[in-house]
């Protein structure tokens, strides 16, 4: 296993049970829905993963583009959402070729930590190009430099406790500790950014930035940012 894309393409244990996986995607979809401002909106979910609740997002917008780099995940997305005429499945290469100013809302949740800083810069520049002047990018689940793996463990356990899968969460933590995840996390690591660092990165890509009050998803120790093309006065 070479990188995080291979990891997400494998039969990994990041979701400790079906309930955990289903709840995860329901919560992400609910949070994405809160950022959709028009039923006609074109929404881009950048590195969407399995996106199990994407049909709910699609029902609230005009078009939903699910972009995913892992080929196996992409194959399942194509099969799962083939009947849904509002959903398109794309690779990240396809996204580079999309028409400029064609997207109202781009979401990149829980992805920046897996990218090199250079990959993130180039993805941000591309998304900036794709956004309409009134569009927004929601960049979620950013890990902070001073918050260690202990907080991720706590967040998972409290999520499990609240939703009745604490035992599975404990078992899942042990399997993850013994898995490729642990090896990759110590070998390649996860990218972390302070609020100032991510603001500087987004500004360099041509965005005006605000931190959101709450993170997307269940982990309150991670951060979400809302970035938009700056207003042109004239
Ligand atoms: C934790 S999942 C997040 C999926 C979804 N956005 C969510 O919130 O549930 C991480 C995603 O990042 C993708 N990924 C991993 N490494 C990447 C890279 N270097 N560039 C782009 N995407 C990457 C994986 O394929 C996977 O879909």
TrEMBL record:
Renumbered to this chain, the signal peptide range is none
Keyword tags: Methyltransferase, Transferase
Please identify the protein, giving its name as recorded.
Methyltransferase
GO BP terms: methylation
Q: Pfam families from the xrefs?
A: Methyltransf_11
CDD domains in the record, alphabetically? AdoMet_MTases
Keyword Membrane applies = no
Which Gene3D superfamilies did the record assign?
A: Vaccinia Virus protein VP39 (3.40.50.150)
Specify whether Metal-binding is a keyword of the entry: no
Q: Which segments constitute the Methyltransferase type domain?
A: 44-139
The record, for InterPro entries, names: Methyltransf_11, SAM-dependent_MTases_sf
Q: Which GO terms describe its molecular function?
A: S-adenosylmethionine-dependent methyltransferase activity
Highest taxon listed in the record's lineage: Bacteria
């Amino acid at each position: 296993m070479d990188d995080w894309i291979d990891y997400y393409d494998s039969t990994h244990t990041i979701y400790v049970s079906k309930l955990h996986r289903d709840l995860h995607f329901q919560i992400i979809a609910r949070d994405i829905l809160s950022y959709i401002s028009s039923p006609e909106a074109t929404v881009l979910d950048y590195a969407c993963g399995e996106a199990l609740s994407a049909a709910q997002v699609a029902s609230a917008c005009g078009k939903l583009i699910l972009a995913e780099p892992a080929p196996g995940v992409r194959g399942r997305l194509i099969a799962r959402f083939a009947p849904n005429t509002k959903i398109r499945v794309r690779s990240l290469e396809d996204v580079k070729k999309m028409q400029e100013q064609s997207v109202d809302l781009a979401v990149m949740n829980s992805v920046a930590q897996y990218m090199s800083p250079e990959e993130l810069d180039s993805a941000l520049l591309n998304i900036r190009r794709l956004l309409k002047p009134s569009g927004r990018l929601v960049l979620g689940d950013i890990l902070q430099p001073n918050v260690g793996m202990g907080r991720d463990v706590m967040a998972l356990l409290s999520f499990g406790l609240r939703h009745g899968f604490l035992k599975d969460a404990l078992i899942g933590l042990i399997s993850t500790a013994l898995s490729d995840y642990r090896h990759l996390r110590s070998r390649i690591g996860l990218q972390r950014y302070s609020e100032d660092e991510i603001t500087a990165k987004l500004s360099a890509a041509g965005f005006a930035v605000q931190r959101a009050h709450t993170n997307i998803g269940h982990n309150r120790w991670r951060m979400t940012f809302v970035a938009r093309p700056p207003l042109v006065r004239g």
